[in-house]
Amino acid sequence: MGRRINTYSACLACLAGMLVLLSCEQAPEPRGPAVQLALSEPCDVQLGCRAGNESLAATVIFGTNPRALQPFPVKVLLESGDQVESVTLAFTMQGMDMGWNRYSLGGDSMGAWNAIVTLPICSTRRTDWIADFDVLVAGRHYRLQVPFVLGK
Fold it and tell me: With 60 as the cut, is the pLDDT of residue 41 above it?
């Protein structure tokens, strides 16, 4: 009986992992040089992180405290005089290859871009992440890097 439960649990865990991989809508990586948007201090991903320049203002908000392999909502509020074409997000770590994990955010008429995303797991148990947002506005590429730590 115990062996059957362990096998059943392993199958459920495998199925859950496959569903996470299948649910990720992989977006193409933007091309060309990006204009880096500087973050304003302080930056708390749950309260909102702001960045911008004379052409674009952005606020990033995570709907919950992110945890590895658990979906959570991400919202980017954008203010620009030009049409925003796309917003994508990838999770990275300094000095680490975290694999392909780019998400497309869906926009609305009010400048809000949203997605449900899943943070990959780090095999070394590091918790220092960077959310790399790429924004295309009227053919111009902007990048916003938002560092965050799990559990904070």
Answer: yes
